[in-house]
Task: structure prediction
Amino acid sequence: MRTLVGRPRVLRLIALVLAAAIWLPCVPTIYRGRSAGFVSTGALSTGAGALMVHQRALWDDPVMRRREVEPMRRSNPEWDFMGRSFDVWALANAAMRDESTPLPPSLKGRGKEDEERGSRRAEYLLMMDRIIDDTLAMQRSRGMRYFLMGYAREGKFVQQPERSQFEDGEIALMLGMRRMVEEKPEYGALQRSLVHAIVDRMTSSPTLSCESYPNECWTFCNACALAAIATSDRLDGTDHSDLFRRWVEFARTHLTDARTGLLISAYTIEGKPIYGPEGSSIWFVCHMLDVVDPAFARDQYERAKRVLKGSVGRFDYARENPRGLHGSNAIDSGVVVPGIDVSAGSTGMAFLAASTFGDREFLDGLASTMDFGGFPIQDGHGLRYAAGNQVSDAVFLYASTMGPVWERISQDSGHLDAGPRPPNSQSLGNRTDSPLSTRPIAGGSR
Amino acid sequence: MIVKSVRPLLIRALAICVLYAIANALGLRADMALLSGTIPTANASVGVMLCVVYLGLYLGAVFVAPILVIAAVIEGAVRKFGVDNEV
Result:
């Protein structure tokens, strides 16, 4: 001891090393268990509620919305569109959560709570309609390329007349989810005609997929379109199970990466691969395919977890490219940390998938990472994550509200696998807790 | 005497925390949007610089400052123990 005191530099170095050994293992503990705030048990959780407040504020305050959306559009106009979709989908789940949550015994027989629920539901519906109408108006007045990246102008769509599956699929799903909460005849007619067009074009395509960009089909967009068709089947009594079966069969045999068994992200309309499996795409695809073919969706999820999940200490994250494969890491990936390949886009979408499959352990690890590296800001305008943007907050919100719509579709669908859902799937009917979730991002790398 | 010897560690920890608090007060946290690929300001290079500065201060406040404080406590205790023994 005396020797150490006499050698101050050595003493300081040892003290610093010891201090680091004490402190560093404590850091993950500080951020652990934050997912609990986003798990909705019946009604919306506090975290989901705070995210909802922010998303609603953005639609109520045009200046705030412009400030948030314009930088996002500068980076990628798709994000503006996707932010709208995720907001509508989240609102639908939130409204259905309110309907399906039994009143606590202390509030039974009181009219006030019912009134509040009724008015909240009406607000959700109003906001959904506002977003849908605004999106359709923008698409009509500015054209479909308003929401697409610049290179959509550089080539010619193979299928004519030109349409983007990216927009058709997400709009059809917005309409479908809104109708799941409450039927609206004009939206019903619009969704049926959109689904009719989507089905016509998919069945006449050699890959059973449609283009989002000139001669570029995205698994992300086609999986979303299939989910939209599933909502229409549920609402309008149609049956497209044959298309679902054929699409999944084709995807298994022609759109799968041989090394990982994961669906590739993009391909030409003739089926030539463009981009391999990507985190920012596959997690979302798993979620959408859960109402088309739950067994296939879960298989893809498990495979994705094996090659995309990473951990540092107790912080979980998702990679953009499967281990050993190098992809394009374009705009949708967000910043990718070199070496460990952490992707903001993939990590955000992983919340959605983990939430879909009730993977609480992965959710906890991701929530810790989000809390540590997402830079949450909570103020009078609700909760947002500074490391993301409006679309990532909307993704997080959707994931944290998720459950009711998917459950309703699954109750009466043309699933390829009509068997019982996995025990940890987010079934509202018998769940004790419901999905959690998060932040970022986008429709695949371009 | 003991406090004086570990003072540099404590001052550095305090400086990191003060600078981090100032960065928060100036709203630099909002510039972290860059991590998602969104450029928050019209000037991308300024955005990158602010993002890097904030990230450095954040990591400093979460990892470095507590280590400096714990190290000060350890060093102070050793010095006290060593000096006491000597006396």
